[in-house]
Amino acid sequence: MASVPREKTIKSADRVLEIFELFNEGRTSVTVMDVARALNVPQSSTSELLGSLVRRGYLTRARGERSFRPTSRVALLGAWVYPTLFRNGSLLTMMDSLSKSTGLGIALCSRVGVSLKHVHTVGKLPEEIGDGSEGDLLRSPFGHVILSTMFSHDVRLLVQRLNAESGQQSYIQYADLWDRLIEVSKRGVAFGSMMPGWSGISVLLPRAVDEEWLAVGIIGPTAEVEARHDELVRSLRQAVSNHIGPRVASKNFAPAPLGQIA
Q1: Distance (Å, rounded) from C-alpha 73 to C-alpha 185?
Q2: CATH number of the domain within which 48 lies
Q3: Rounded to whole angstroms, how far apart are CA atoms 45 and 132?
Q4: For residue range 82-140, what is the model confidence (pLDDT) as tens digits?
Q5: Any idea what the CATH number is for the domain that residue 96 is in?
Q6: Are 137 and 214 within one domain?
Q7: Is 189 inside any structural domain?
Q8: Which positions ≥6 away from 4 have C-beta within 8 Å?
Q9: pLDDT tens across 159-172, in order?
């Protein structure tokens, strides 16, 4: 799997977000030592950071206990973003249901700068493609469906930048990628490798005006995904249709521009 370019980060901001990312269905509370080990931060600094989050109301700790848990303020922190998908919608329910019916992993992805972010995942998946992990925008099927919404000039610039930051063996040929994106745009679905032994099938979520493009899809062992390809594509499309449906866009909304000549 090709390396993902790293952009400049602010340690204090990263650590706060990494603390929140430690919580999931399998870990609803953490101790100071849990966080210190996970973030490779001194225990004293960890205690101060957790204490600050408690004072601001994002974490809570019962008297006499050593573990910290998120509060309802964390749940509400971003609930106003895309309310028709999250607060009032059924996107997360759809992902849970799709994972249960297929027996495979489900991922929701977005583009963040020059990287692909696995925003939310459901089901048993390798850590490399779990919640909050980064993927290769130019090689992932989730990246391909998102890139299929872009103009050829912008895709070319993105390829040039990522090629300049990667080694010779990781180069992507723009012409090959563009042909791939045209095919993805026509079919409305992308299939490809996520990492050695794991593959994914992805489609775009219907988008309202001014929202970012999000990709959702199914991930599993390559042999199983290949054998069940047509079935999984049908299940994925049906789930999006049933749970999300068409989204209302403004009268100025324009369809994806990929049909332009490269």
Answers
A1: 39
A2: 1.10.10.10
A3: 23
A4: 676 776 678 889 999 999 999 999 999 999 888 899 988 999 999 899 888 889 999 99
A5: 3.30.450.40
A6: yes
A7: yes
A8: 115, 134, 135, 136
A9: 999 998 877 677 89
